[in-house]
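R.M. (postdoc): so does anyone remember the format we settled on? I'll just put the structure tokens first.
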């Protein structure tokens, strides 16, 4: 039976034009329901003592983020004729990250998007940053850090568990775009590339949000994308941070910025209809990424996408069932938010290296820490830390794995020494800062009063 032979399930008068999860809607009822879903998520902004702050809309130019920008526009002003006179978002900016340095096919997209935004979405201030800018000092915490990491052991390449690095002054004058290309060219596995590019973009969005005084970042992940991420991230070993990685609102990862996913209830099919009905599909740009035109088995994420999309075609409640599970996810009560992964910025579970040794069948003999073999007694780090005139902490050799979550440790196996050297300075900075803190803590631990002692 054709869709147009049915009447709308909501108004019961108009002829239906769309079929969503076995329900028929006319165009205006579909729009009303779609906008209503967005509104109900925005109402979460008013939950608790949350301030109604400025919002950064992350916009890739894909269907979901374009829909999100258009939806947000309507919640920024009060329409006197409308019944519900609430302005849910006081101020918002649109931020696009231009990836054309890595993907030739995306050239010119950013310029086109800039033009469209300035012309048709003038309510928003618009920012476009090139991905390679992440190598600049602007994206470090101190705003001036320009050192890089250098592999000293190559442990990962030898199939061992540690990867020792030293932090050295960067004396590269190479253009940032070349550094970005060198970084990604040195990684072979698509999954490792996909995760890395995602981490770089996240770092940029959080930094830009802080710079512009935004207290929220809106990500345009659709229900379909959320379902794919949930399965893919679980298989990649991100179970610990999953509630933060994909939850509707993550207030825990960053003290000053809350990450929200207001499109999480919309199927990509619904987003397609909304964009079409509202004539905003002309702004969409078919972005290329590492798995475009690649076979399904090129990465976990790509494989999961194929899997979910094909089941959804037969069983239209697949995505919504997975998404309902996401709303039930809670971060562990014992999660330590002070230690974060230098790569993905998410909280770090303690003792991963030990755990990995337990579950992996490998001969780990001889992989003891160099500090145990030839470590310096003074600062308890390995290899010539005190023999140079440099500040000790800069020459200290640290195991990179200690500052990375499980998923990022797995990806580290695909990094060679060129990759490590080409990682952006903000990662080196995070490792240096956190290792200094932990060494300091180590030195004074005997003088600290442990909270647990009181209870015994
Ligand atoms: Zn209707
Ligand atoms: Zn990580």
């Amino acid at each position: 039976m054709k869709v147009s032979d049915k009447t709308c399930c909501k108004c019961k008068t108009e002829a239906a034009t769309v079929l969503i999860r076995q329900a028929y809607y006319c165009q205006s009822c579909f729009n009303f329901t779609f906008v209503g879903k967005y509104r109900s998520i925005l109402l979460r902004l008013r939950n608790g003592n949350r301030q109604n702050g400025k919002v950064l809309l992350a916009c890739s130019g894909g269907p979901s983020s374009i829909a999100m920008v258009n939806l947000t526009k309507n919640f920024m002003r009060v329409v006197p004729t409308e019944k519900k006179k609430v302005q849910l978002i006081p101020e918002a900016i649109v931020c696009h990250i231009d990836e054309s340095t890595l993907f030739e096919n995306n050239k010119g997209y950013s310029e086109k998007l800039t033009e469209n935004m300035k012309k048709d979405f003038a309510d928003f201030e618009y920012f476009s940053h090139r991905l390679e800018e992440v190598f600049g000092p602007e994206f470090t915490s101190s705003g001036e850090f320009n050192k890089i990491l250098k592999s000293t052991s190559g442990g990962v390449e030898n199939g061992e568990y540690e990867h020792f690095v030293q932090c050295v002054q960067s004396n590269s004058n190479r253009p940032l775009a070349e550094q970005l290309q060198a970084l990604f060219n040195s990684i072979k596995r698509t999954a490792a590339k996909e995760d890395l590019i995602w981490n770089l973009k996240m770092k940029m969005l959080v930094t830009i949000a802080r710079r512009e005084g935004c207290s929220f970042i809106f990500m345009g992940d659709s229900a379909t994308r959320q379902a794919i991420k949930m399965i893919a991230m679980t298989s990649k070993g991100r179970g610990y941070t999953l509630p933060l990685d994909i939850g509707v609102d993550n207030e825990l990862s960053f003290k000053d910025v809350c990450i929200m996913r207001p499109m999480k209830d919309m199927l990509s099919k619904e987003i397609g209809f909304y964009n079409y009905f509202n004539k905003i599909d002309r702004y969409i740009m078919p972005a290329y990424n590492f798995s475009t035109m690649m076979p399904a088995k090129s990465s976990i994420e790509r494989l999961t996408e194929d899997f979910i999309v094909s089941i959804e075609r037969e069983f239209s409640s697949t995505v919504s069932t997975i998404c309902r599970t996401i709303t039930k996810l809670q971060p562990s009560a014992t999660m330590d938010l002070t230690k974060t992964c230098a790569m993905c910025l998410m909280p770090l579970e303690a003792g991963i290296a030990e755990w990995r040794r337990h579950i992996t069948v490998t001969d780990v003999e001889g992989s003891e820490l160099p500090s145990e073999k030839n470590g310096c007694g003074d600062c308890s780090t390995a290899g010539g830390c005190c023999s140079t005139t440099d500040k000790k902490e800069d020459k200290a050799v640290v195991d990179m794995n200690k500052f990375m979550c499980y998923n990022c440790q797995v990806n580290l196996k695909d990094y060679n020494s060129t990759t490590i050297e080409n990682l952006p300075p903000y990662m080196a900075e995070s490792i240096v800062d956190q290792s200094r803190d932990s060494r300091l803590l180590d030195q004074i631990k005997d003088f600290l009063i442990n909270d647990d002692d009181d209870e015994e």
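R.M.: ...and that's the designed sequence above, right after the tokens. Also worth knowing: Confidence is low (pLDDT under 50) at residues 363-391. The pocket of zinc ion (ligand 1) is lined by residues 8, 10-11, 14, 25-26, 29 (CB under 6 Å).
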